[in-house]
Prior knowledge:
Elements: H1 2-19, E1 23-30, E2 33-37, E3 43-78, E4 81-92, E5 95-107, E6 110-141, E7 148-155
Parallel strand pairs: 1-3, 3-4, 4-5, 5-6
Antiparallel strand pairs: 1-2, 6-7
Amino acid sequence: xxxxxxxxxxxxxxxxxxxxxxxxxxxxxxxxxxxxxxxxxxxxxxxxxxxxxxxxxxxxxxxxxxxxxxxxxxxxxxxxxxxxxxxxxxxxxxxxxxxxxxxxxxxxxxxxxxxxxxxxxxxxxxxxxxxxxxxxxxxxxxxxxxxxxxxxxxxx
Length: 156
């Protein structure tokens, strides 16, 4: 517990140097109902924690219990259901949705991306365009080695 407190204190102390007008810490109840320090709930550079959130831009960590949504996410997203338009980093949700492109990793039961540069690990993986690897029970990639494969699919 001390390590988490020290890490959070370090983020809070260091974040003003690179945050600018962005929120450093955001606490979300649901959707856009949130508070942030400083008062910018749509652009977060730091940590976002909530039950369900909807944010235009996140650079850092978005951690929600039920639902996390980000327009542009650079960092890590974790919730039961996570959605990002563009993502550079990792989605660690039960259900991962990336509506434009993803550069990084999706890890969950169901993973979906329009364009993937990286890895999908889950029971069902679905992507339109892949440059990387899918590992799971069902792997669907329109431009993969095969349109649908069991265990592994991809394209490099």
